[in-house]
Amino acid sequence: MFGGLLQPVHLLVILIILVLVLGPTRLQGIGHALGQSWRSLVAGFRTSTQDAEPPAALPARPCPRCGGWSGDVANYCTRCGAALGQG
């Protein structure tokens, strides 16, 4: 039905329609909000992938793939699902 990807002319028409409907100031505010949301999402992924210290109460070992800590009785990493070796 559509026969292919959007061409640059199509994107230009969509942008013109958005400016006419929303106005340039509201469109700028929407772009700013989307940028802030994207930065927040990326920052959340970065902080969740940083290595944390193992809990002191439980014996633990690091995952060879992601570096997360799993208990000694676990066969698979609770963070990424990688198989933990015996040991």
Tell me about this structure.
This protein is mainly α. It folds into two domains: 8-48; 52-87, no CATH class. Helices cover 46% and strands 7% of the residues. It has two helices and two strands. The protein has helices at residues 8-22, 24-48, and strands at 60-62, 69-71. The chain has a two-stranded antiparallel ribbon. Strand 1 (60-62) and strand 2 (69-71) form a beta hairpin. Helix 1 packs across helix 2 (24-48). 3% of the residues are buried.
Instruction: Please tell me the total number of domains.
Output: 2
Share in helix = 40-55%
Beginning-to-end CA distance, first to last residue: 57 Å
Largest sheet: 2 strands, antiparallel
Q: Please state the overall shape, judged from the principal axes of the Cα atoms.
A: elongated
Rg from C-alpha positions? Answer: 23 Å
Compute the average pLDDT. Answer: 79
The helix tally amounts to 2
Order of helices and strands: HHEE
Count of beta strands: 2
Q: What share of residues are in beta strands?
A: 5-15%
Query: Which strand order do you get reading across the main beta sheet?
Result: 1-2
Structural class category: mainly alpha
Key descriptive features of the protein:
2 strands, elongated, 46% helix, mainly alpha, 87 residues, two-stranded antiparallel ribbon, 2 domains, 2 helices
Topology:
Layout: H1 8-22, H2 24-48, E1 60-62, E2 69-71
Antiparallel strand pairs: 1-2
What's the gist of this structure?
The protein has helices at residues 8-22, 24-48, and strands at 60-62, 69-71.
